[in-house]
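Deliverable D5.2: sample structural annotation.
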Amino acid sequence: MKYTISIDIDRPIDKVIALFDNPDNLKEWMEGLQSFENLSGSPGEVGARSKLVYKMGKRDIEMIETITVRKLPQEFSGTYEADGVFNIVKNKFEKISDTKTRYISEQEFEFKGMMKYFAFLMPWAFKKQTMKYLKAFKQFVEGQG
């Protein structure tokens, strides 16, 4: 499954990137994020691996992030591995004007086991979750003044 979602943020691209690139800010816009632990490499750099733990409903979901591309603002990409799910995420940022930035999220998922059925029956759930995070990031950035 592949899809692309974007949102426009009413802040200059430099401000958007500075807030996006700070891992301490993840908890401000990634609802359900319980912990972010560096496993190897320099955090945020190509090759770095981290463990993220999310609370989604009553379930704890662990995923391993591996940074694959770091060319901000053009692209910041990584892979995310969890039980039955392999996700490739490409985050891209475009300057629309001196005060407006477009955040583009390209998502590609591969599923195994029961997750194949869930994804087939409810592909909208993945898109909805991505948009929820983009809206939360926009609100966080625009609230920083």
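Annotation notes: Strands lie at 2-9, 33-40, 49-56, 59-71, 75-82, 85-97, 100-111. The helical segments are 13-20, 26-29, 114-121, 123-142.
The annotation will be released with the project's public dataset once the embargo ends.
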